[in-house]
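Hi V.,

You were right to ask for the full record rather than a summary. Here it is.
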Amino acid sequence: MPRYAENTSVSASGSRAEIEQTLTRYRATAFMYGWEGRQAIIGFEINQRRYKIPVPLPDRNSREFTHTAARGYLRSKDDADAAWEQACRQRWRATALKIKADLEWAECTSHPVEAVLQPFTMLPNGLTAGEWLEPQIEIAYQTGHMPPLLPAGRE
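Predicted structure:
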């Protein structure tokens, strides 16, 4: 299956700059970017709420980069690095598209941006709402019961 922007020539830094411009256009009052290992983070604030969107980066040592797709031949280090860079550019383009689409959809449909970005809302404990909620949803589906109304603070 083809991937969005799989052959993009836009650099990762170009996509990050576009993300920052998009967020500014939709009234963000803060922006940050950082990375550690194979995880990058876009953080921003809109309407006094903070959001964190993860950008999982590919494993540089994955076979998809170290070997050719067609015949499985070992690639040179330069070719493997180029394939990995391309995959990183693709992920940053997809992230730029996601952020732009979410904010535009909120704007044109009059949905509150807080609702559209809810899974990425930062909670006081450092988790996003989506990270906190996913295990609760899993338990509800497994048991057929709703979790307690206010489970915060319990481990």
